[in-house]
Every structure is written in structure tokens, then in C-alpha cells.
Amino acid sequence: MKTEQKQFRFLNWIERAGNRLPDPSFLFISLTILTILASAIAAYFNLTVTYEGFNEETGTIETISTSVNNLLSLDGFHYMVTNIIDNFTGFFPLGTVFTVIIGVSVTEGTGMLSVLLKQIVSKTPKALISGMVVFLGILSNVASSTGYIVLLPLGAIIFLASKRHPVAGLAAAYAGVSGGWTANLLIGSNDPLYAGVSTQAANILDPNYVVQPTGNWFFMMISTVMVTLIGTYITDNIVEPKLSTYSFSSTDTIETITGNERKGLRWAGITFLIYILLIGVMIVPESGILRDPETGSLLESPFMSGIIVFIMLMFLLPGVAYGIGEGSIKNTHDITKLMSDGISGISNFLVLIFWAAQFTAFFEYSKLGTIISVNGAQLLTNIGFTGLPLLLLFVIVAALINIIMPVDTAKWAMMAPIFIPMFLQVGLSPEVTQVAYRVGDSVTNVITPLMPFFPMIIAYFQKYDKKAGIGSVISTMLPYSIAFLIGWIILLSGWYLLGLPLGPGAPVTT
């Protein structure tokens, strides 16, 4: 039974209150209606903001004036009725989930994933399971958002195999993938995007200033250790003890591998190695066909652009090989059935994501997020703080803005031209401004219902807890959000006071 210890009462209250909200699909319908009405009210009062912003099409900083788009106007009404299908089919999580599920459903349906993970877990000390899941979640964001699709379900399966609550595994993976968005040991696909926007913003005051993609690298590496340790502690000592007892089935136990399963794993292993070698041939040489044909870059290349497809094949091909070797796949009809079963398993998610896509699109069209964010930024500039207090206040502001506008690079393109020049004038480098933004942008990822992947998170929770709702997700993830915020504030404060470089040639102050 769910414990009612004092340290859990607040989280339990949040869960109960959140789960009293309408079904998630109807909640997004309600938010959509609220957005429509709010846009009409804001347009009536002629709300407008003007700011220096980064134009991604021209690559320059421009003065931008933004006013509310009234969704109840004739143009707004036409937008709504003509874009509903495009909003759904163009919603980013839809395509990525569908594509990866095609591959994962084969590895899962043949039993390969379960057998492989159970064997890994049987050889991994139980004390390291949580840390391993959080750490893998952090590393996964090097390939942008693929960790949401791959690591979250795997986190639950890993915990199941070790006879631990699968929701705790989901939470640990989600904490690493989303809450640890600013951390990594490697330079990821988003780092060049951040650096480009930050450079343009810095050039408003200093035309020669260049922010490198490695400008936050040292801070990111230390953050990886911090997030892993905090995430492990929260999972083991707060999240898992709070969860209700989970009824394990016979399939959740670690059993001896049969001869056919060993044969299947050998076939899958050989297929996986051949696949990795082929990918290596195409991306390792500077002239590799999956690198950028003009620059030879790997970060901005066909490989990174098509990473979802390559991940799908990484699951699909070994899964098929395992099924043939193990005997569960006898013909092509078996492969198609496994794919179909995988897609049918996410039917609830598809209904939820349809309405989430409408809300996200309508909210973006209305420009309400931009107006709220710019006004928040202008409020910060009027407070009069400098140095470390200003930096930490910016972290808080970025965290709050992220709750209503959780699109990191697009939001930074709007906020960087405001904050980087302002902070430069008080001696704070563009790199430290950028890292403060990224910290704030990470910590509330796991608790905002407006994050594009949030509907998928709810669907994962409901797979193991039929009564789970928005309140369940938020109450489970809130301890991670608070702990990561406190940890990063302490880390950033120490970094600032010691004057350590944030990356190669990237100072804290100018």
C-alpha cells in the first residue's frame, strides 16, 4: 500500500489533485479552448511586445514586434479549421515514436529485448541499477530527443527484470533524458545550435565574439556526475518507496536462457556488429557518405538528421535475426504481425497526442508564449541585480518560462538577444548566460504538461499503473526537478566563485 509518511504527504496530495483533473485528452482539449479564449482577450487589449530577436532564416539579429494572433478572428478561425490534420501529422513525437516502435516492437515481440536485458541485470549489482538508467538517459540526449523513445521504456523493463517497480525505472530514465538535458559527456546535436544563436546575440555588442559548441562542455561533464548521483538518490529513497506495490508476473522473473534463445542472441549479435561496422564505414572517414557533403561535419549531417531511422534499424535488424535464430519468426508475415502489434499497443497514445498537437499548435500560433516570455525577461532586467544573484535569478526565470514554453532552442533564439547583451554589460560571458539558461530549461522539463513528449510519458505510466494520470507523473517527477535545481544552483555558484572555465576558452566573466 502507498505509504503516508510525512515526507510523502505533499507528493501524494499533488498526485491526488492532479489525477482529479479530466482525462489527459480532455485536459488538452480544455487547454486548447482556454488558449483560444485567452488569445481573444489579449487581442482585445492589443498586447504587443518588441524585442531584439534572432531571425533563423536570415541568421541575423533583428528588432521584432509581436502581437497576439486572435484565434477567434476570421483568420484565426480559418487557421484552426484548415490545420488540424497538419498539426497532428506534423507533431514531432508522432513520427519519431511510430518509426522507432516499428523496430522496438520486433525486438520486444520476439523476446530478445527481455532476454538480453534480464541477463544484463542479472550481472549488474542492484545498487547500480538506478544510476545506470539515469546515466544512460543523460547520454541519450546527445542524439537530441531519441532518449524519450528508446530509454524510457527500456528503463521500465530494466527495473522489471531486477524485480523493482517499473514506474521507478520510467522515472529514473525520464529524469536522465529530460531533467538532465544540460548534462552530457559528449557534445550533442543541440550544442552547435545553442552556440550559433549565442554568437549572433553576443555580436550585438562585440562583433568578434564567437561562442563555440564546446563552450559549456566542462560544466556539462561535471553536471553528468551530479545529475546521475542526485537522480539515483531520488529514485531509490523518495520515488520508489512512495509507489504502491507492483504485482510481478512470471514473465518478469530472470530465467535460464534456453538453447534456442542463445542461438537467437548469437545471430542478433552478429547482425548488430555487421550493422555497426556498415554505419562506421559511412560516418568515420571524413569522406563518409553519411557526413555533411560540404563540410564533412558529423554533428550536422545526414546521419544525425536521420538518426531516428538508424535507431529503428538498430532494433529491427537484430530483432529479426534473433527471431529467426530462436524460431519465433518463420516467415515475413510474422515480422509484419510483430510490427502491427507494437503499433496497436500505442493506440491510447495516438488519441492523446492528437489533442496535445492541437493545443501546442494553437498556443504557438497565438504568440501568447512569446509575449509572456518577453515580459518576464523585461521584468528581470528591471530588478537591478548583478553578478551571481542575477545569474541565479535568470536560472529561476528560465525554469518558470520553460513550464509554459518548453521548446529549448526556439526559446533560446528569442531570449539570447535579450539576455546575452544585457549580461555582457555587467561582465557575464555569453557562455555562462547560455549555461544558466540551459540549467533552468532542463529542471522543469520533467514536470511541465506542455512538453511535446508529455503525452507519451503519461501513456508509459499508464502501461504499468492503469490509474495513473497527470498528477501521478508530476508528483513522481517533482522531487527530481527540485533536487536538480538545488544541485545545479550550488554547482553553478561554486563554478562562478572559483572562476572555472565552462569549456575550452570559455570564461565565466569577461
UniProtKB/TrEMBL annotation:
Listed transmembrane segments: 26-45, 91-116, 128-161, 217-235, 264-283, 303-324, 345-363, 383-405, 412-430, 442-461, 473-498
GO biological process, alphabetically ordered: p-aminobenzoyl-glutamate transmembrane transport
Pfam family, one: ABG_transport
Keywords per UniProt: Membrane, Transmembrane, Transmembrane helix
GO-annotated molecular function: secondary active p-aminobenzoyl-glutamate transmembrane transporter activity
Name this polypeptide is given: Aminobenzoyl-glutamate transporter
Highest taxon of the lineage: Bacteria
PANTHER family named among the record's database cross-references: P-AMINOBENZOYL GLUTAMATE TRANSPORTER, P-AMINOBENZOYL-GLUTAMATE TRANSPORT PROTEIN
Presence of keyword Transmembrane helix: yes
Entry-linked InterPro entries: AbgT (IPR004697)
